[in-house]
Design a protein that fits this description.
91 residues; mainly alpha; 6 helices; 0% strand
């Protein structure tokens, strides 16, 4: 993640302009908490991650195949979801 943050300190997008490189990497970066990876101190990466939500279709795409926000009703549900996801990633 540090490598991405360093790259994004000098570049707006990963491959010079918005591209599939951004889309492919955003999938992993936006779910960092599932795998237990912190973005603390990675300000450029955090800014890029947030900017990706502004790109056409990105929010819509996060709801496929299911809108997890509609099934995760409260913080307890969200914490349990993350806990189970971390088990899969850390196997």
């Amino acid at each position: 993640m540090k490598f991405l943050d360093t790259h994004l300190s000098k570049n707006e997008w990963l491959a010079g302009e918005y591209s599939i490189a951004d889309i492919a990497n955003w999938c992993w970066v936006r779910t960092h908490n599932w795998s237990g990876v912190s973005l603390d101190g990675l300000t450029h990466l955090e800014k890029w991650k947030d900017k990706m939500y502004e790109q056409p279709g990105m929010i819509k795409g996060t709801k496929v195949p299911v809108d997890r926000e509609s099934i995760l009703k409260d913080d307890k549900d969200k914490e349990e979801f993350i806990k189970n996801a971390q088990k899969m990633v850390k196997k």
